[in-house]
Write a structure and sequence with these properties.
Pfam families: DYW_deaminase, E_motif, PPR, PPR_2
InterPro entries: DYW_dom, E_motif, PPR_At4g14850-like_plant, PPR_rpt
Organism: Zizania palustris (Northern wild rice)
Shape: elongated
Keywords: Repeat
Protein name: DYW domain-containing protein
Structural class: mainly alpha
Length: 797
DNA sequence: ATAGGGTTAG
């Protein structure tokens, strides 16, 4: 009979099913039922059996065929609550979240009442979308249905409020829940942890164990550890690690990877890379996230070489970056490693895998190009980006500044505001250095005002940028004011303030501040010593500089890097101790690089020590005079010695190798607008007036005994021609313009991108005397204050 | 669990 039934299943299946049912032959009924599932079209038309459709629906969902499931669902004439629940549940992944909510709405329209299974799934969707509006509506429905106190429903509500950042409501639900399981406790903890509410989180954790007698599981710790990492709570983190080992939390592989990754991230963020590495090595399994976390840790601690090795190891193991977050990690590593080629490969990967549109990864990419000096590529990418946010704009602003195009940074900032994108602290921290570069005090003051209005004026990083800005705009007094008013300092604050004194030639003040720093228990770092030694160097405090160099290693345990040797050579050479500087270089434990030799070469040029200059230039030629500066110096030395053929030769090599000399340029800010000049510039609207003024001045000071020092002219010209080339150096033009534009009591403040030459230095001294004006010139190196024919510097450089 | 932009020195 069964065989006959099976043969005939398509026609009389419904009849037979009922027959089996009445004869209590459940087994046969079920077998027939399952055969029927495979048949198409659905044979039980006479019954219109929804149960059968439901089974098919579940089959499609289980196999992940969502579109087939949807198709089937739409054929059900009156889907019941179970059908809705099944499909909503299937849709509850973030990708299909919108469909799920749509279905939930349709369910209500069809007057199908949601039940205790519906609400948690629908709420999960709201959590994923952080859709508070929908979440609240569903909360009302749950209350209406009398289900809001159900354990699963209320836990889902709690989670929804947490994910929507409505912690207050979440806490209220938690407090009024009739019963709470570990999931609920964990959800609440995640909320506290996510909002960096350290004390709340810890109290909650203790209550969970004491009152509810619940023991932390993997997801408890996965919430807790990032909080400890952020707080730098290494000791508590270590306790958590011990707990993990005690309760064998790594037994389940998935838990092991999650907890292990969180642990190693905690160690790395607390600066304990050895332990981070040990956790990593002991993990039974690792994934993309684990590797990203470790690489980020090394990058964070500035251990670039090891970060690079890890990066290569990961790729060699066949692992690749896929998720936007880990691509962002990898790109950040590339930016810090200066590995543009790897960055470009990741760019290609992004474009191929469709992660391209991800804002986070896109912003990292933008910043990577900017940091690598490929500003044009950064700009191009910025324009390609489908959506941009304030991070994208900030990255571009800082990209322009880092690549010496500060004026354009202001344009981007303007455009950003025109597009109604709100600048935040990081944007302002990117923008303020643009004012520092340009020495544009008015712009800087505006930015300061803007920062105050935005309520950001007491943020440490903002204040640091302001200190630097005022120092570089010639107002070291305002720098100190900002410094004194800060609520708290970090190492950058101290370093910036010390360096500020340095460029103003205030070595004594720099030293005093350094001692203050020590007294207040701030440990100096490598940068502090670069600042302090170079401030000694600018103030001619050779003995003090040497003293701090020795203290650095012996007392503070900081191993000198190439930068420190560079500073020392500069200190000695500037002070005129050329031979000592030469010996110092030869006694260095590191092989001196081009920059170190360059510092000595610059001193040879100024002190006109041609013999040593020749020896040093030979060294530089062997090393390859990287960058433009040393080519210029080298050729200047030859020029000064009257060996113009060799000077020209150096220039030719420079040109062939593609190093362009950046033209000397000076600028001055008058009433908030910048006026820039290059040597011999006649493009300014008031050009003829400016040159008339300048010629008058020069005529006057020649009567007082000024003689042009033509050794500062680089080309092989006749004396008269040389004089002309000198006369029209850009700083002289800018000063003449300043005299014309500013009333007599105002200080003239000119900024130059290169160093001021010796001849200009002399001329400016005379001008300050004849015109009775205070003149400040900021060049590539430091400040020169001119008054009554004197300069604050001992010598011109 | 990893997660985007920013401040200092040369």
């Amino acid at each position: 009979m069964l065989a006959a039934a099976r043969l005939d299943a398509t026609k009389n299946g419904a009849f037979l099913l009922l027959l089996f049912h009445f004869h209590r032959r459940h087994h046969d009924a079920r077998r027939l039922f399952s055969t029927a599932v495979c048949l198409r079209p659905p044979p039980f038309e006479s019954i219109k059996d929804q149960a059968l459709l439901l089974v098919q629906l579940q089959g499609h969902i289980a196999r992940g065929h969502l579109s087939r499931a949807r198709h089937l669902f739409d054929q059900i004439p009156t889907p019941d609550v179970r059908a809705y629940n099944d499909l909503i549940r299937a849709y509850s992944s973030p990708v299909a979240a919108a469909d799920a909510l749509h279905l939930y709405r349709r369910m209500l329209l069809q007057r199908v009442a949601p039940n205790n299974y519906t609400f948690p799934f629908a709420l999960k969707v709201c959590s994923a979308l952080a859709d508070l509006h929908c979440g609240r509506a569903i909360h009302c429905h749950a209350i209406h249905a009398g289900l809001h106190a159900d354990l699963f429903v209320s836990t889902a509500l709690l989670d929804m409020y947490v994910k929507c950042d409505f912690l207050h409501d979440a806490a209220h639900i938690f407090a009024t829940m009739p019963a709470r399981d570990l999931v609920a406790w964990n959800a609440m903890l995640a909320g506290y942890a996510h909002h960096a509410m350290y004390h709340h989180a810890l109290a909650h954790l203790l209550r969970m164990q004491a009152q509810a007698r619940l023991r932390p599981n993997a997801s408890t710790l996965v919430s807790l550890l990032p909080l400890l990492a952020q707080q730098g709570a290494l000791d508590q983190g270590t306790c958590v690690h011990a707990y993990c080992i005690r309760v064998c939390l790594d037994h389940k592989v998935t838990d092991g990877v999650l907890v292990g990754t969180a642990l190693l991230d905690m160690y790395a963020k607390c600066g304990s890379l050895v332990y981070a590495r040990r956790v990593f090595d002991d993990m039974p399994a690792r994934n993309e996230v684990t590797w990203s976390a470790l690489i980020s840790g090394f990058v964070l601690c500035g251990r670039m070489t090891q970060a690079f090795i890890l990066f290569k190891d990961m790729l060699a193991k066949g692992l690749r970056f896929h998720s936007p977050a880990s691509v962002a990690c990898a790109l950040r590593a590339c930016a810090n490693l200066d590995d543009v080629r790897m960055g470009e490969q990741l760019h290609a990967l992004l474009a191929k895998s469709g992660v391209h549109a991800d804002l986070t990864a896109g912003n990292s990419l933008l910043s990577m190009y900017a940091k690598a000096g490929l500003i044009d590529q950064a700009i191009a990418f910025f324009h390609e980006m489908a959506d941009k946010n304030n991070v994208s704009y900030s990255a571009l602003v800082s990209g322009y500044v880092q690549n010496g195009r500060a004026e354009e940074a202001f344009l981007v900032f303007k455009k950003m505001q025109a597009c109604n994108v709100d600048p935040d602290a990081a944007t302002m921290v990117s923008l303020i250095p643009a004012c520092s570069h340009l020495a544009a005090l008015q712009h800087g003051r505006c930015s300061h005002g803007s920062v105050i209005v935005r309520g950001l004026a007491s943020e440490t990083s903002i204040c640091n940028a302001l200190i630097d800005m005022y120092a570089k705009c010639g107002r070291i007094d305002l720098s100190r004011q900002v410094f004194d008013m800060m609520p708290s300092w970090d190492i950058v604050s101290w370093n910036t303030m010390i360096a500020g004194y340095g460029i103003h030639g205030l070595g004594k003040e720099a030293t005093t501040l350094f001692l203050d720093m020590n007294n207040r228990g701030f440990a100096p770092d490598g940068v502090t010593f670069i600042s302090i030694i170079s401030s000694c160097s600018h103030s001619g405090l050779v003995t003090e500089g040497k003293h701090w160099f020795h203290e650095m290693a012996s007392r503070y345990g900081i191993t000198p890097r190439m930068e420190h040797y560079n500073c020392m050579v500069d200190l000695l050479a500037r002070g005129g101790f050329l031979d000592e500087a030469y010996q110092f270089i030869q006694s260095m434990p590191l092989t001196a690089d081009v920059r170190v030799w360059g510092a000595l070469l610059a001193a040879c040029r100024v002190h006109k020590n041609i013999d040593l200059g020749k020896r040093v230039s030979r060294m530089i030629q062997e090393l390859g005079p990287e960058g433009t500066g040393n080519f210029v110096l080298l050729s200047n030395i030859y020029s000064a010695a009257g060996r113009f053929d060799e000077a020209a030769e150096v220039r030719i090599i420079q040109k062939v190798k593609g190093f362009k000399k950046s033209p000397g340029c000076s600028w001055i800010e008058i009433n908030g607008s910048l006026h820039a000049f290059v040597g011999g510039d006649q493009r300014h609207l008031q050009s003829s007036e400016i040159y008339r003024e300048l010629d008058n001045i020069l005529l006057g000071i020649k009567k007082l005994g000024y003689q042009p020092d033509t050794t500062f002219v680089l080309q092989d010209l006749e004396e008269e021609e040389k004089e002309k080339a000198l006369i029209y150096h850009s700083e002289k033009i800018a000063i003449a313009f300043g005299i014309l534009s500013l009333s007599e009591d105002k200080t003239i403040f000119v900024t130059k991108n290169l160093r001021v030459c010796g001849d200009c230095h002399t001329v400016i001294k005379y001008i300050s005397l004849v015109k009775r004006r205070a003149i400040i010139v900021r060049d590539a190196n430091r400040f020169h204050h001119f008054k009554n024919g004197q300069c604050s510097c001992r010598d011109f450089w």
